[in-house]
DNA sequence: CACTTGCCTGGAGTGCACTCCAACTCTTTA
DNA sequence: TAAAGAGTTGGAGTGCACTCCAGGCAAGTG
């Protein structure tokens, strides 16, 4: 509940699905886990779990051993959040995180990985679209029936 | 493996994701579970499980107790497959199946249920689109780096 | 008649992505 | 100084959607 209100500098936002957009406290550089919970909409459990499975770059610690997230961490979590929303398996995200850790010589493979995912997303959009047609058709039938019974 | 080849009457198809489209054996009216497996791409386990949880209208049986699916069942499985592809939870599909069983007085609620799902699908399409932008951006960066190193 | 194939059942197991628990430490507030 | 609150850990538990297993029955083939 310790929400830090920074002056309205810039307004980078978190894009958690339907949640109202949460302003990132800009100007600060180290965030507690609860601040990151606030910002990302993920639970603290999940944040720690992401770290355990290697989905996070090394998260800094305070002198007492508590996590202190940086802006770069928030950027990374934004990307992870998007990949997650588009259904990329956690294992693939971990793979991508590994590639990032390995440095620039993995650019080509990162490109391949993201391209494959992009194809997947495109395919899924097409799939959703075609289902939308079926839904429209069904809903129209029910709506027609309703209107008919209302007229009766 | 007992695939029934019907003469090419009409060509209604099954829309299982990337699988090649399977022609429905038209002209026949009762299908074994393995034929339905072939047609839907679902496993026999899953088909039996759908029945257990109430996601299927009553499936007919042969005199020896084996399932005999009808064309109506295949139509239903087409719809279920689409709802599934668009991420409708099985519990919601079961709810819809119940409404269908209850008859015409549930038209209004069926309309509501499908409309809600349609909204969901639309929202997800928008979400996927916006992620596509991020992916394009990232992939461009990697591609540029690759081209730069190829020139070097 | 043996064998293979296809299908049946209830119930247990799997994989994924979290989600929670118990027991603890550290910091802040009354 | 006592109590509340935020954070720590490893490991166990949860919910979803299958997925598989053991053991058995029925029909067709050599």
- Could you name the CATH class of the largest domain in chain A? Mainly Alpha
User: Distance between termini of chain A?
Assistant: 56 Å
Q: Radius of gyration of chain A over alpha carbons?
A: 21 Å
CATH architecture of the largest domain in chain A: Orthogonal Bundle
Give the overall shape of chain A, derived from the CA principal axes: elongated
Query: With helices defined by DSSP (H or I, 4 residues minimum), what is the helix count of chain A?
Result: 5
Task: Give me the strand/helix succession of chain A.
Answer: HHEEHHH
The fold-level CATH name of the largest domain in chain A is Multidrug-efflux Transporter Regulator, Chain: A, Domain 2
What oligomeric state do the depicted chains represent? homodimer
Output the structural class of chain A. mainly alpha
Mean pLDDT value of chain A? 84
User: How much of the sequence of chain A is in beta strands?
Assistant: under 5%
Number of domains of chain A: 2
Number of extended strands of chain A: 2
Q: Largest chain-chain contact?
A: A-B, 38 and 38 residues
Q: Characterize the largest beta sheet of chain A: strand count, sense, and whether it forms a barrel.
A: 2 strands, antiparallel
Strand order of the largest sheet of chain A: 1-2
List the uncertain runs of chain A.
1-21
Please estimate the helix content of chain A. Answer: 55-70%
Keywords:
homodimer; 152 residues; Multidrug-efflux Transporter Regulator, Chain: A, Domain 2; 2 strands; DNA-binding
């Amino acid at each position: 509940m310790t929400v830090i209100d920074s002056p309205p500098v810039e307004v980078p936002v978190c894009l958690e699905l339907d949640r109202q957009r949460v302003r990132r406290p800009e100007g600060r550089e180290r965030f507690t886990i609860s601040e990151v919970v606030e910002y990302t909409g993920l639970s603290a459990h999940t944040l720690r779990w992401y770290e355990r499975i290697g989905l996070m770059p090394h998260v800094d610690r305070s002198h007492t051993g508590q996590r202190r997230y940086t802006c770069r961490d928030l950027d990374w979590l934004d990307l992870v959040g998007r990949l997650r929303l588009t259904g990329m398996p956690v294992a693939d995200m971990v793979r991508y995180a590994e590639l990032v850790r390995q440095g620039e010589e993995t650019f080509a493979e990162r490109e391949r990985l993201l391209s494959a995912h992009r194809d997947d997303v495109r395919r899924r959009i097409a799939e959703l679209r075609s289902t939308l047609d079926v839904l429209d058709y069904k809903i129209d039938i029910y709506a027609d029936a309703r209107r008919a019974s209302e007229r009766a």
